[in-house]
Design a protein that fits this description.
alpha+beta; 46% strand; disordered N terminus
Length: 223
Amino acid sequence: MIPKELQRKLNEGRQYRDIDVSRFERRSDENGEKVVEGYASVFDQPYELCRIAFEGTTYIVREQVDSRAFESCDMSDVIMQYNHEGRVFARTSNGTLEVAPDATGLHIRAKLGGTALGCQVYEEIDGGYTTKMSFGFTVGADKRDRTEERDEETGLRTITILRTITRVSKLYDVSAVSLPANDATSISARSFVDGVIEELKQEQLAAEKRERQKKIIRVLCAL
C-alpha cells in the first residue's frame, strides 16, 4: 500500500507530462486559419518515469493513462501555452482551443492566428522545430501494479511499478514543448518515484526483520 500522506500529495498536486508519445500528429491550414492538431497524451501506452539501482535492486517506475481517465475531468477553461509558461495563445473559453479525449488519447485542435505569439508558434510547428506536446493536470485516482524478477545468475532483482492514472480531476493546460522533458515534469516524476522506492525499501527491511525473527524462533525451538 502507498502511504496515505503520499497518496494525498500525489492526488492534490499539479503534475506535468511531456513524453515521447505526446505529439503534434498533423498540421493544417483551413480557410486561411493557422490551425494545429495533435495529442497531448495517448492512452494505454506505458512510458518510463524513472529507473534507479539501489543495493542490488533496480527499481523501474512506469506510468500510463487509462482511456477513461478524462470522463469526469474538469476541462471548463483549458489554455494552450509554450513550455507551460508565458503568454496564452489559445483557450477553450473563447473557442480557439478544443480539447477532447478520443479512442487514441487527449486530442487538441487550436487556432493560433489570434496573436503574434500564436502565429510564431504555428510557424515553429509547421516547420518541424516544435513537435512534442504536454499537459498540466491533477490526478484524481490511480492504481499501481508491482512485478518482481530476479536474475538467477547474478541474484539481482528488478522491481517494476506500473502506475495507471484512472481519473484526471482537472486539466489546466496543454502545451507545445521544445524538449521531451522539462523541470516540472522531472520534479513531479521524482517526487512520485522517491515515495514508491522508500515504501519498497521499508517493505524489504520489514521482510528481513521477519526472517531474522523466524531464525531466532527456530534456534530457540531446537534448544
